[in-house]
Write a structure and sequence with these properties.
The chain is α+β, with helices and mostly antiparallel strands. It has helices at 8-18, 23-39, 59-67, 110-121, 126-145, 148-151, 195-199, and strands at 49-53, 76-78, 85-90, 96-101, 152-157, 170-172, 179-181, 186-188, 191-193. Strand 8 (186-188) and strand 9 (191-193) form a beta hairpin. Helix 1 packs across helix 3, helix 2 runs parallel beside helix 3 (59-67) and helix 2 (23-39) runs parallel beside helix 5 (126-145). The longest helix has 20 residues, at 126-145. 31% of the residues are buried.
Length: 201
Amino acid sequence: MTKENVTSEDFNRCADFHGHVCPGLAIGFRAAGAGLEWLRENRSVDEELVAIVENNACGVDAVQVLTGCTFGKGNLIHKDHGKQVFTFIGRDSGAGVRVAMKPGVIELSERHRELVKKIREESATEDERKEFWDIHRQKSQEILGKPVEDLFAIRSTNATLPGKAMIEPSIACDQCGEPTMVSKLIDLDGRNVCKECLDKP
């Protein structure tokens, strides 16, 4: 699925998966489309692509739908940097592209920010909620309609590819008894203990 084939139907699939239309989803959609176009790659069926996302916000859902990179397949990597930055790497080619949102792209109007605050505080009236979603959708449409160069700084990158997802046995934690991947257990005085138990006071 290269950019020429990324359609409004694709965006609708992203919105269905995410649950609603919002500017963040639109950013992830455009970033994923830009990454696929730059790499000249199709959607990842298995682990052909790797996506590294530097946030855990709405746009990551669009990245999963468009690129096929998911936590379950091990080819969606989260780095908690709080940035709208997305890196895509093709395993076969080794080529990588970093797609970073430019400043001001999701700048909200004063009214939009006011409505966001009311929604979060659960003090918005029904009319204000409707107004919020109308403005939210309008901002999303703006992002979907802008040239990609107005949204992102895009450059090639030599990011290191993570290893492919490992399938390994689990054994019971000696403390809680829950099956845990062998590589995630910690040897504590000869006992196999999971990280959750290790972190408990």
